[in-house]
Amino acid sequence: MSVEIVELSLQVKNKTYLTPHYLRVYLEGENIKEIENSTIGVNNKICIPPKGVDQIYFPRLDDSHSKWIYPPKEVCPVIRTYTHKGVDFTKNEIWIDFVVHGTEGIASSWAQNAKEGDRLGVLMVKDSIELYKRTENYVLIGDSTAIPVISSILKDLPEEAKGVCIIEVFTENDIQTLETNASIEFKWIFNENPHDGSELYNTVKEIQLPKENKLAYIAAEYTTVKNLRHYLRKQLLWNVDEVNAYSYWKIGASEDKSEVQRRKEHE
């Protein structure tokens, strides 16, 4: 089944630091209304143009919708997977949150240096997609990169839902207020050096998890996700449809190499 992809050629409107390590970039464009049915929290692709290129040359899917065709190297953008955090159709505006910790990442570096008027391309699925399975008890687990998707889930949960949300950020100053109507217990853990490893796995093992009508949604670093999925599926014997696990990056791997390895692991 093919999906329709919307190409958004956007410009930086402004940006603001939500916390010391979390930067929100506001982007505007004329065709924002084309994504009015898109699901907030679903991954999209951002396209960062090469230096000196003031136009977005988008990759396109082939006729079978199975393979990307890229533009010539000199104008081909750097493509990264992100999640738009919100949209305002009255202002023709979306915003994307970037984790900033040094300038080693291409997307993070772009966000820190972006100026008003700078261009960014966004590829987004046009239609609505189910972000998570509806149930009664939720275990939401993630690092800083997962806050956009986890906050989208939290905001969507009904009042009768309950659960726990465990998020690892750099410092206490990086805690954000995440809106929800559900009965959620928040556990924030702190790790100034996520590239040295995570405490998410050990934290989850120490808490009591729901026994039935449950869903775990995990989004974090490759090894952490792999260990947590193994713990829930193999040790606690959760069913496959009770564990949604996505690795967003990998320690010691470049962004491009990490994406290939993570895709294979997910499959």
TrEMBL record:
Signal peptide: none annotated. Belongs to the SIP oxidoreductase family. Residues 11-122 form the Siderophore-interacting FAD-binding domain. PANTHER family: FERRIC REDUCTASE, NADPH-DEPENDENT, NADPH-DEPENDENT FERRIC-CHELATE REDUCTASE. SUPFAM superfamilies: Riboflavin synthase domain-like (SSF63380). This is Siderophore-interacting protein. InterPro entries: FNR_nucleotide-bd (IPR039261), Riboflavin_synthase-like_b-brl (IPR017938), SIP_FAD-bd (IPR013113), SIP_fam (IPR039374), SIP_rossman_dom (IPR007037). Residues 136-251 form the SIP-like Rossmann fold domain. Pfam families: FAD_binding_9, SIP. It comes from the Bacteria.
